[in-house]
Amino acid sequence: MRKFYCTLLLLAVSTSAIYSQTIIDRDPEIAAMVKEVSADSLHSYIKTLVNFGTRNTLSTQTNPKRGIGAARKWVLQKFNEFAAASNGRLTAFIDTVTYQPDGKRVDSTIILGNVVATLKGTDPNDHRIFIISGHLDNMRTNVMDRVNEAPGANDDGSGSAAVIECARIMSRHTFPATVIFVTVSGEEQGLLGAYYMAKKAKKEGWDIEAVLNNDIMGSNNSSETNIIDNTRIRVFSEGLPAYETEKQAKRIRALGLENDGKARQLARYVKEIGERYVDNIQVVMIYRNDRFLRGGDHLPYVENGFAAVRITEMNENYYHQHQDVRKENGIQYGDLPEFMDYEYLRKNTAINLANLANLAKAPAMPQNVTVEVKKLSNYTSLHWDKPATGNVKGYYILMRETTSAFWQKKLFTTAINADLPYSKDNYFFAVQSVGEAGNESLPVVPSIAGR
Description:
CATH superfamily of the largest domain: Zn peptidases
Strand content: 25-35%
Distance between the termini: 46 Å
Number of domains: 2
Number of helices: 9
Largest sheet: 8 strands, mixed
Order of helices and strands: EEHHHEEEHEHEEHHEHEEEHEEEEEEE
Helix content: 25-40%
Shape: globular
Structural class: alpha/beta
Radius of gyration: 22 Å
CATH topology of the largest domain: Aminopeptidase
CATH architecture of the largest domain: 3-Layer(aba) Sandwich
Oligomer: single chain
């Protein structure tokens, strides 16, 4: 087991702060799961997906060997194989809805289907849900071309393969919270499958705490610039919330939280946990909801009030994205499997798995986190209540300067309040629940006490 060292502030809340160096260990169960992520398995999934010829959302749903229908059935088959070894914890189905022509990218009535596998949490009182998503469909240069060859190895065979591999490994383990693995359809047609699922979740009151959307994450080189890099992966997250922005604007402005929405907190978490468990990879936070003027399947979730981020390779290659397979001027176009880096995809899949497992093992977030403002003080007084579910051994108080992108200090305490010798003018704070095995919840930024 690898050990990592970082300087923490160990807080004795009832008296004074004690400064010490603490060893941070990887959770051995999660570390073992990360080691199980297989580049060979990912390669085999993508090979099968490519062999369906096309997975365009408008393609055939009746051919047993070709098209989106055959691809969906195969993913369901894989999920059901994993379910057989899960002692009944994992269940899977194709969630379908009839979608009518929309005058945009759907020109005929189709059955839109998401392949969904649910790993039910073991705590009946824990209703939290964590989702990993990739889109099963793909496209050629013409998004309406439902007939001709479209390999879709990277876009988004890579994200779908990551979802399948995480389901394979995690289905053999138990977690208090629920994890959902989903390959959606209709992304290239306008995020249709993701909108269907996000709206359903909002309507039915799902307690979704995090969505990890994986899209184009398995190639290591860029077009035009010819940059080759398989040691960095991007995580995109929204700044100002898309959901009820006007309603939240007053609080955001008053507390200076333009950079501390739920999605941005999730992105910080993905970086910390991913780099903790996966060697030779850097998670690069991008302060955009998605790439410049583009979108992905996490957008419907943030628009419905859920924390969601997009995980994407560092350097995209547009010769192999949304292209007919052809060769022009010595350049090979098309999303072909030979342009994949399966070791890079393994690392990026492992980042997802480590985060899902750490979140699902952790207690729920602390409740009613507040900061006291009754009097002017150079101290910061925080208070919170125990989480609704999960066994806690304590809490981390997170700190960073207002100009810092990342949390800089972690203060551990077993109490539910703290008086810190740091001015709230100069620092941002948040609180995490910490489980008995050291797994951390997502952080909660304090609101104002008594308001």
